[in-house]
Design goal:
With 391 residues, the chain is of the alpha/beta class. It has 13 helices and 14 strands. Helix 5 links the parallel strand 4 and strand 5. Helix 1 crosses helix 3, helix 2 packs antiparallel against helix 3 and helix 7 packs parallel to helix 8.
Length: 391
């Protein structure tokens, strides 16, 4: 079997654009990957095509050779663009290998340790701004029995936060907590907003709510600073979505920065890179909770990891998505008792429809975090893209 073609598709998804990779072979088997790199979609698309010379005419089963050679030969190593490009292609190669052998990818990584994975939802709050609006939106989380919900209650704060803004954020958390009750975990997102003293102050205030974690309390560049925050607060911390390979994570692990690690399969080199990170986290008794707010192929790849990684704790998912998500792919996601069922189809377990992808071309999106409309991340007609068997 030889690789004959590499294609990319950019599909608008409202808050970002999905970046998909398709690899075709002379046997007729093809594979799909995802390299969605928010706000840099055109750049990563170009980087993917730069890898074409490593692929055409090669055996797609030799995934490790591709990973090694492309990283070695990049010279300017690491970073989100290269690692996202590698991730998208690497996923597609695993998809081909699984389809050719007739097994899900998790079978190629050691087999299952579970049949389903607990889920927490993101995006459930759109487009709430006030505490009361967040609380109203949280009713849906409770009704659908998700096991956790995550959100950023800090408005457009950067580095510091005023007393009034902090009180408003705490009131928002309090009202959501009252709405969802004791059975649903609260995960508080920081988006790397704060300096160390502000993050510590917020961490102390969050103790009131028995949160599951405080995510990315300071900018991702400062691992030593994150360790300082961890030393001074008593709530669990999570971070790592903006680290891009095992070499960046080495210092992160050695400093013992957080309680949970959150690499993204679309940004940190793909399935095997995350499998290696999970193994290192396991030796340190850290929870593995990949960042997973992107498109259907990234979700499918993360589910394969959820199947075979013993220390996988929680799966992130968006509660709704653009209405055309169900048009562009045939994913069959099932939620049961607040858990997502691991699919059993060969490869990554889904197919994309090229003609549908072309109907939703690239549209430029801007970062919302610091301009006051962070929660406007879902269109008015957003909808579920999964089946809930028990609701």
């Amino acid at each position: 079997m030889k690789i004959t073609a590499l294609k990319t598709f950019i599909c608008n998804a409202y808050r970002t654009n999905f970046v998909f990779v398709k690899i075709e072979t002379d046997s007729g088997v093809h594979g799909w990957g995802e390299a969605t790199l928010e706000y840099r979609e055109l750049t990563v698309q170009a980087a993917i095509h730069d890898l074409q010379s490593y692929l055409l005419g090669k055996d797609p089963h030799n995934i490790e050779a591709f990973r090694h050679d492309c990283y070695r030969d990049a010279y300017w190593r690491g970073g989100p663009v290269l690692m996202s490009a590698l991730a998208g292609v690497e996923m597609a190669l695993w998809d081909i290998k699984g389809k050719d052998l007739g097994v899900p990818v998790y079978q190629l990584l050691g087999g299952k340790v579970r049949d389903s994975i607990p889920v927490y939802v993101n995006g459930w709050f759109a487009p709430a701004k006030t505490a009361e609006e967040f609380a109203q939106k949280a009713k849906t989380v409770a009704e659908h029995k998700f096991l956790g919900c995550k959100w950023d209650p800090f408005g457009k704060a950067w580095q510091q936060i005023s007393k009034a803004e902090l009180n408003a954020a705490l009131d928002c958390i309090r009202q959501v907590a009252d709405t969802v009750g004791d059975e649903i975990q609260l995960l508080i997102e920081g988006h790397g907003r704060f300096d160390i003293p502000t993050a510590v102050k917020i961490g102390h205030a969050l103790e009131e709510f028995d949160i599951f974690w405080f995510e990315e309390p300071i900018p991702p560049d400062d691992k030593e600073g994150l360790r300082e925050v961890k030393n001074r607060v008593r709530v669990p911390l999570a971070a790592g979505e903006r680290l891009y390979n095992r070499y960046e994570y080495r210092q992160f692990f050695d400093l013992q920065c957080t309680d949970y690690i959150q690499p993204d399969v679309s940004h940190a080199g793909g399935i095997m890179e995350l499998r290696l990170l999970a193994a290192e986290a396991e030796t340190r008794h850290l929870g593995f909770c990949p960042h997973n707010p992107s498109g259907p192929v990234a979700n499918a790849a993360t589910l394969q990891l959820a199947a075979c990684v013993p220390n996988f704790v929680l799966l992130e998912m968006m509660m709704t998505d653009v209405p055309w998500r169900q048009d562009i792919c045939d994913e069959t996601l099932v939620m049961r008792g607040g858990r997502m069922v691991i699919p059993e189809r060969p490869g990554l377990g889904l197919e994309l429809r090229e003609e549908e992808l072309l109907k939703y071309p690239y549209q430029r999106c801007e970062l919302r975090h610091y301009r006051g409309d962070l929660t406007a991340i879902r269109p008015p007609d957003a909808r579920k893209y999964y089946t809930m068997e028990d609701c």
